[in-house]
Design brief:
Elements lengths: L5 H11 L4 H4 L5 H11 L20 H13 L5 H8 L3 H12 L6
The structure holds heme C.
The site of heme C has 18 residues, from α3, α4 and α5.
Length: 107
């Protein structure tokens, strides 16, 4: 299975895209993000440690939103995350991005 490196993907999409990270975060509501995060933390560890599934606490909100939109669009292939992101709208992704960015990372 071929997998696009997220870093390479981000570098390409952020420079080629007319949509800025700020646009992706429009309408973000941190309380709504916390509410929506319940589903995510069944897989992504809440204390930010990486146990096979990448930790998502403390990720830059713009990077977080860009990655989620990439899963949603199928630009990054991963069946689980494509399904998870596919159900979320732009405002929900923005809210999750600012919420997880506010959480302390393990490092
Ligand atoms: C069923 C388990 C599961 C659930 C539920 C889940 N994820 Fe994931 N998530 C994963 C796995 C596994 C990966 C690694 C995918 C890959 O390698 O591309 C991942 C990757 C990610 C990444 C990329 C992180 C990185 O550094 O590569 C983000 C961001 C993310 N998930 C956010 C979320 C959010 C937000 C939710 C809730 C709306 C969520 N996930 C729900 C399993 C899950």
């Amino acid at each position: 299975m071929q997998k696009v490196s997220i870093i390479i993907f981000l570098a390409a999409s952020l420079s080629a895209s007319s949509v800025s990270a700020e646009d992706l975060l429009a309408g973000a509501d941190i309380g709504y993000g916390e509410y929506l995060s319940g589903e995510c933390v069944t897989c992504h560890s809440q204390n930010g440690t990486n146990s096979g599934i990448p930790a998502i606490n403390g990720l830059d909100a713009g990077v977080f939103a860009t990655v989620m939109h990439a899963y949603k669009a199928g630009d990054i292939e991963h069946p689980v995350m494509q399904m998870v992101a596919g159900r979320l709208d732009r405002e929900q992704i923005a809210s999750l991005a600012v919420y997880f960015a506010s959480r302390p990372s393990a490092q």
